[in-house]
Amino acid sequence: MVRILSISDPGTLGAALDVLRRGEPVAMPTETVYGLAADATNPTAITSIYEAKGRPRFNPLIAHVSDIEMAKAHVSFSPLAERLAEAFWPGPLTLVLPLKDTGKIHPLATAGLGTAAVRMPEGFARDLIAGFGQPLAAPSANRSGRVSPTTAQHVADDLGDRIGLILDGGRCRVGVESTILAVTDTHLRLLRPGGVPVDMIEEITGLAVERSTVQPDDDEIIAPGMLTSHYAPDTALRLNATEARPGEAVIRFGGVPLKSEDQTKAVMDLSPSGDLREAAANLFDMLKRADATGASGIAVAPVPGHGLGEAINDRLKRAAAPRD
Ligand code: TXA
Ligand code: MG
């Protein structure tokens, strides 16, 4: 049976550190989504993450750090990367940076690439990493290809039979994963839209962020361009819906009803007031709840594409992608 411990219980940090020091994984809350964390320097620990998730090993993990000094022990920061870390850390921004020869992040965590993705999370996760003293590799704490968890219960539903400990920090504040940026001396490329809107990054740096045509996802990074079923509920999604069909579950945005909602299984609203932050925080939970209604399909209203809307639309598009 999986243990679930509240992060407000004073014994929880110590109990989690014991598990991590044994080389085992722990599900931890972050401000974005729950992560499945393990020692990023220990190949056995990293392997346990890939196994619990059923994740292909060629898809690298984010190394989470508690401060910039810890990150600098493993990857090289250009002045541009440093500026981004100062502006957005701790927070939902992941930087892909060149590995240092002297770094200790294990190649299993980086899938043998010459770079590592690093991020400093907020709150309890940061305290946990500081207590551990080494980076924690942590993908989202879901089975590969499924919707990311934003509550401890989501993690228990998905991985409860595969891991020993879940740390319960309540609902995640942001609700979508971090923004991933590939950073060189002078250039920024968006690998995944996420919790930090691109316009904020452009404002801070004065640079235009290149949007790559190919975005990484859980199941495919080396051979790009294949939009595999990702962030996917079991029920098929219909995007930009203005009209509901009988038997569907409806996910509205901005308090606007869809036409013909009367014969639907459920009606939810990502944000009745049209607030994209609230919509991001509700997104994965509502997808899971809509999925659980046994509806014939999920009709999702249009969501604006600016700011956090870019990440929301990215996740919706992936969730709606055809699957095998
Ligand atoms: O908010 C988040 O980022 C959450 C929380 C737990 O921190 N983590 C998360 O991890 O979303 P994951 O594994 O689900 O997504 C990480 C993404 C993957 O698409 C992976 O391919 C990409 O980051 N990635 C990792 N290392 C990379 C690298 N060196 N170069 C390019 N992409 C990389
Ligand atoms: Mg993931």
Task: Summarize the SSE layout with pairings.
Blueprint: E1 3-6, H1 12-21, E2 26-28, E3 35-39, H2 43-53, E4 62-64, H3 68-72, H4 79-88, E5 93-98, H5 107-110, E6 115-119, H6 123-132, E7 136-137, H7 152-159, E8 165-168, E9 179-183, E10 188-192, H8 198-205, E11 210-211, E12 237-238, E13 249-252, E14 266-269, H9 276-291, E15 298-300, H10 309-320
Parallel strand pairs: 1-8, 4-6, 5-9, 10-11, 12-15, 13-14, 13-15
Antiparallel strand pairs: 2-3, 3-7, 4-7, 5-6, 9-10
The protein binds threonylcarbamoyladenylate and magnesium ion.
Q: Which stretches are low in confidence, meaning pLDDT under 50 for 5 or more residues running?
A: 218-229
Radius of gyration: 19 Å
Strand content: 15-25%
**Number of H/I helices:** 10
* Beta-strand segment tally: 15
Order of helices and strands: EHEEHEHHEHEHEHEEEHEEEEHEH
The class by helix and strand makeup works out as alpha/beta
Taken together, the total number of domains comes to 2
* Percent range of helical residues: 25-40%
What is the end-to-end distance?
32 Å
How does the major sheet shape up?
9 strands, mixed
Mean pLDDT: 93
By CATH, the architecture of the largest domain is named Alpha-Beta Complex
What spatial form do the alpha-carbon principal axes imply?
A: globular
Strand order of the largest sheet: 2-3-7-4-6-5-9-10-11
Question: Which small-molecule species are bound to the chains here?
Answer: threonylcarbamoyladenylate, magnesium ion
Q: What name goes with the CATH superfamily of the largest domain?
A: DHBP synthase
